[in-house]
């Protein structure tokens, strides 16, 4: 006979949540894996001894962890999702008939805690990964990726000239006392000239198929525009993609099992090469605290910088960073003598080291110059330096570091390190952006973006820790027969 199921919405008299969540469930195992009680001591200074009880700090951090594990960006969707999952309710410590916190409470609590509390949670989870043998510290792969900010390009405003600042400025018809620094033009003049020339070049070439009558695109730059919604968001562009307001997420990944050993949020208009010192310093100290010295650091060409090579070598770390294409190790026709630190021109004249120079961007270089008399009498002068009195050569002050990096790059271990970086840090970034809610941040400000990236790294490392199964060595014992006493066979 055909059956028909009839549903009656009745009150269940006996129900235990722990019986409905299986032992192998992710969140049940996660609740048993991590001890969250240390968060109470970390967050106690941010509460008063009077007033209504606040949201439990452990519940808040568990909710943030669920948002990363479930790939949820919105706080509203997070609360809706948690209310429908029995395993998440068990992980949070809530009963079925108990109301979850409001989404606005989560946002206010996130703003209440400073970034160091989130960093303490990251350190706690990282220490467990070290204890489980997931981290060796020997080789660290470094990379960065853009994360979409919670702001729009359409809301950008033009910065005020710095010399026009006064005790008060009229903005949108209202008198505003004081002026925030991010609303002022603070870039050097030579940077502004570069932006102006780039815009002028764009306008000359921007005729297009519709001619000059069509509306021109907005010419935007971080040096001349800012976002009033999120002043820390920066305009950035990827090859083949449109411009957007982003943050830069910088990662360091241990090559042993792919555990994230460092994460930080940076401005999206910063060059990767300028960020490496701020990544290596805390990373090196964190691993030394666990008695794990760093031997190799692997990164792509964007981190190529003479100062970075010198910094890593001074710490006893080998930098496996390819040299960028503009660097030329040799000058055609000139030979370099390392002992005397001078060049020799094709005519056999010496170009000794003269002085150090610093360009407007702060790059340090060395200048080599020949004697004026040698160049005046040289028959090659009309083709070598037709308008100058003497031949000058400018080289980077870190030329020796570049040469060592180039030799490592062209060696067989250098090619192996390049493949190691590709299979270590790039898959981690793909997972974070696609499956751990890091495709965009739903907060505003660099500090809040840093908190979000720390929580994403915590969720990723916890998944690594849950999947880790230590190898068990099997021992086989064989019982050998007792040897016969001497003379046993003779008596036969």
TrEMBL record:
Source superkingdom: Bacteria
Transposase DDE domain residues are: 344-466
- State one Pfam family annotation: DDE_Tnp_1_6
Q: Which residues are in the Transposase InsH N-terminal domain?
A: 16-111
InterPro entries from the entry?
A: IS1182_transpos, Tnp_DDE_dom, Transposase_InsH_N
* Name the UniProt record assigns to this protein: IS1182 family transposase
């Amino acid at each position: 006979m055909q059956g028909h199921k009839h549903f009656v919405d009745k009150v269940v008299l006996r129900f235990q949540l722990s019986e409905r969540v299986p032992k192998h469930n992710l969140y049940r195992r996660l609740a048993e894996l991590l001890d969250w009680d240390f968060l109470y001591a970390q967050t106690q200074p941010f509460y008063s001894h009077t007033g209504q009880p606040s949201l439990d700090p452990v519940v808040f951090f568990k909710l943030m962890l669920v948002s990363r594990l479930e790939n949820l960006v919105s706080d509203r969707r997070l609360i809706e999702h948690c209310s429908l999952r029995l395993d998440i309710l068990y992980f949070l410590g809530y009963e079925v008939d108990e109301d979850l916190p409001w989404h606005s409470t989560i946002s206010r609590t996130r703003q209440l805690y400073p970034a160091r509390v989130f960093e303490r949670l990251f350190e706690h989870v990282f220490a467990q990964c070290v204890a489980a043998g997931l981290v060796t510290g020997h080789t660290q792969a470094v990379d960065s990726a853009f994360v979409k900010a919670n702001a729009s390009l359409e809301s950008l405003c033009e910065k005020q000239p710095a010399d026009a600042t006064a005790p008060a400025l009229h903005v949108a018809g209202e008198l505003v006392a004081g002026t925030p620094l991010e609303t002022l033009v603070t870039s050097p003049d030579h940077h502004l000239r570069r932006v102006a020339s780039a815009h002028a070049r764009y306008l000359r070439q921007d005729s297009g198929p519709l001619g000059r009558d069509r509306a021109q695109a907005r010419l935007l730059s971080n040096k001349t525009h800012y976002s009033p919604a999120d002043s820390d968001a920066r305009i950035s562009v990827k090859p083949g993609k449109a411009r957007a307001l982003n943050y830069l997420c910088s990662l360091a990944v241990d090559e042993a099992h792919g555990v994230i050993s460092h994460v930080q949020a940076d401005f999206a208009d910063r060059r990767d090469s300028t960020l490496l010192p701020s990544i290596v310093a805390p990373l090196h100290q964190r691993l030394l605290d666990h008695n794990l010295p760093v031997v190799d650091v692997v990164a792509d060409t964007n981190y190529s910088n003479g100062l970075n090579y010198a910094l890593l070598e001074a710490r006893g770390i080998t930098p496996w960073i390819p040299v960028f294409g503009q660097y030329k190790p040799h000058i055609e026709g000139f030979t370099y003598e390392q002992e005397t630190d001078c060049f020799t021109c094709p005519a056999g004249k010496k170009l000794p080291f003269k002085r150090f120079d610093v360009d407007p961007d702060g790059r340090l270089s060395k200048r080599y110059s020949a004697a004026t008399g040698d160049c005046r009498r040289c028959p090659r002068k009309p083709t070598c330096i037709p308008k100058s009195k003497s031949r000058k050569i400018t080289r980077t002050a870190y030329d020796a570091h570049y040469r060592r990096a180039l030799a490592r790059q062209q060696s067989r271990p250098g090619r192996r390190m390049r493949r190691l970086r590709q299979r270590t840090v790039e898959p981690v970034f793909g997972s974070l952006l696609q499956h751990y809610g890091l495709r965009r941040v739903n907060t505003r400000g660099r500090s809040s973006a840093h908190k979000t990236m720390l929580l994403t790294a915590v969720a990723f490392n916890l998944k690594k820790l849950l999947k880790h199964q230590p190898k068990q060595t099997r021992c086989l014992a064989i019982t050998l027969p007792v040897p016969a006493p001497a003379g046993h066979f003779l008596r036969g």
